[in-house]
Amino acid sequence: MALSSMGLHHERLTNCGSFPAAVFWGKARFFVSNPLSLSLPGRLECMRNPLRRCVKIVKNHGFLGIDPGREKFGWAFGTSGEGLLCSGIGETGFFPIWIRKILEERAFSLLGETLREGDPKTLGFFREFRLFLGTGTGSGEFERVLREMGYPFSWGEESFSTLEARKLYWERHPPQGLRRFLPRDLLFPPRPLDDLAAWCIVKRALGF
Hints:
Elements: E1 9-12, E2 21-25, E3 28-32, H1 40-48, E4 55-57, E5 59-67, E6 72-79, E7 83-91, H2 95-103, E8 115-118, E9 126-134, H3 139-149, E10 154-156, H4 161-172, H5 194-206
């Protein structure tokens, strides 16, 4: 049965990866995938039932947290329901270009250059992102950039976010070997945690 005969309306969207068409049905919004992007079993299922397994829900908005710093900044995308989607650490000097590329051009593929956790491919399903900026070191310069560029944001408390980020790291990457018998408070992650601190800023601001 053709989608048009079911009373569905189409809208061409960009930056949707393998989901090029949006379909509206009642109050729900869906992306119908290109069957050629699926595995063979997925293609057969899509041919048998095009509005079942080859449908993705479009989400209204997600959250973007920024942990400011003088030399580097942490960034983190996520939702209250799904938690952290992806995060990374970038150089502060590139923040004005970075934020414009992400929020205006939706060039999520660029996130791979500074990615530390998750997968940015999921971000194309969000219509917009609510921005939270930490109150820590260097936040004044980030505030200036965001205000000059016209991006609305909310403040997020940053104190002790590094300790929370360390706990989050070990939740996502449990210690291996003999280290798993040690108290996690005594273990130090093998990388900077600015990105996870950015997600902790979002969680504090929203209370989840």
